[in-house]
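Cross-posted from the bioinformatics board.
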Amino acid sequence: MIDAGELRRRTAELLAAYPPATTDRLDFLRARFDAGLAWVHYPEGLGGLGAPRSLQAVVDEELAAAGAPDNDPRRIGIGLGMAAPTVLRYGTDEQKARFLRPLWTGEEVWCQLFSEPGAGSDLAALGTRAVRDGEDWVVDGQKVWTSSAHLARWAILIARTDPDAPKHAGITYFICDMTDPGVEVRPLRQITGEAEFNEVFLTGVRIPDRHRLGEAGDGWRVAQTTLMNERVSIGGMRLPREGGMIGPVAKTWRERPYLRTHDLHQRLLKLWVEAEVSRLTAERLRQQLNAGQPGYEGSGMKLAFARLNQEISGLEVELRGEEGLLYDDWTMRRPELVDFTGRDAGYRYLRSKGNSIEGGTSEVLLNIVAERVLGLPAEPRTDKDVPWKDLAR
Amino acid sequence: MSTPNAEPDLLYSEEEEALRAAVRDLLTDHCGPAAVIARTESDTPHDPALWKQLTEGMGLAGLLIPEARGGQGATHREVAVVLEELGRAVAPVPYLTSAVVATEALLACDDAELLERLASGRTVGALAVSLTAAPGAPFATARVENGVLHGELTSVADAVAADVLLVPADDGDLYAVAADAVTRTPQIPLDLTRPLATVTLDGAPGRRLGPAEPAVRRALRAGAGLLASEQLGVADWALTETVRYLKERKQFNRPVGGFQALKHRLAQLWLEVVNLRAAARAAADALTTGHDTDLTAAVAQSYASPVAVRATEEALQLHGGLGMTWEHPVHLYLKRAKADSLAYGSAGAHRAALAGLADLQAP
């Protein structure tokens, strides 16, 4: 039985054998993975010890206190949050052994090739084709809104393998080598001026069948694991009071009294309360998960934060008065991370417009809450039993 | 703005869930909507039999009172769970006013005699301050002349059900006044399940309890913070009942709840009720621990009122014509939610308090 004490003991052993001060960062991360202290809830031999997920905090605290390097989780969020759980659940032993270690250490960055120009909210209608050719699959199509594609070594990819089947049934899930000559990555410039995301064009990309995840035609089910984990990681954040977008607005309010008006004051207080209440809801969700009572609240967190971010940043632009007319920098750049705090109010205002679109639009999420949480009737479906090739597009 | 050192415990313990189940069972059997509607038009708008079961039967009047003073020595967390259930049933009992607000005032004065009487539930107390008074705001007082009390205090909730009134006076003290020594004139309340009265004192004798200001402030803060749990119960009823109805109700050959315009409204409401639960739990926990209490109670009360009102307004609209009838209970909840939004300080009053508490000063 692995408990907190045992994890502390093993962490101390790791630190003794690989003192962070004198150990190369990558060597340390590999040793941590091999000691089962990377993600303790994963199985032994794959970076974990089969321990409860909630005990990860014990290891992280000990390592942080000892000044150990981390794997820069924000940089490899798609690998950690989406690819890894899917590989763990559906991968072969060979795939797990090959991919999980360099994924966790950050040696290999992952991206996600799901959305397409013609398949956004209706992701299951995707049209990128994968055709079997001997031991390989040959992939042609276009993906969009792919973060990290220009840095990634591997991608999780869903593609259509049976156009004669109804849309959900004809999809297969692959691991795609981003260094294949048929993969072309182009920056996608967005309203903020920069390009966080990419368009990815796939032309005759060859994927060996051993890089298929799950059965052919079962890709939609496999993708649910990926998407569920995306929502869990969005809901799991822990914020201090004023830790979100309300922070910079409150700071400006306190530091620059000459900007204050009565109208802005009323709106600020309202949004401050909503931000604090949303923070408490996220905290309650975290406590529920830790107590082993999975709540439905997670489905709502993304909806709430999207609206709040938009309203708060909109208020912030107004609060700045004349400065609100200005923008810090329109230069086309390729940021590795979304950084809401390092930029001005105008950037926050524009970037947060994406919050109600990315990772599921607010409209679709409201349907999901209504149907799965409240049990209201599902939307009428006219596409369920129609072969994909006959759908309107 | 500093972060709270320890986050509040926002869950319900097993004991709290057991308490909830017991209260809900009792209310299901003895406080159905038809009976509540009938009672609102009777001579006794309060339900003395239900009060007896809640207090003498279950000991709930003394939850906040230490065992040494004859109470249960429980906390605001348990009281909050009771209030959620009383809100869910719009139960016409003076629980918030006697077992929370009057009790807190007596705790501030540490009045052993009255605490013991209120803990049993056999004596009902009411703080003779307008239901609209916010914690920390000025309140009307009676005049002390020749050692007796004079004056008129309006909008005193549950005054008619009370045996003893706690009356703040212009000498700065709080007095215990026997209900039969004053004239209580019922007002016609918007919310018939929480009756209001004007209290007229014409030379009424009172027993001095202690300084009024800290006692009233403490009582109103607990009232405001825990009212959020009652509002949660009201909002949760409105959401649950509306979802149930819209799954059943058919128009255009399909359940009305299948229309996306309505699904989105209900999903939005669910989000707000989820938020309200976190805010109400935080307030109950902060009142229990004494940590960050003023701010957390003000946050909960700023958020709760508009959500409870909106939930019941949506419930009415989505019930269509049925929602406009006297027979259907949705109006009881709408009236309770609207009246609650004025009780113990409006959302706006609590936001104004937050300007100071969170250092977001007015221009």
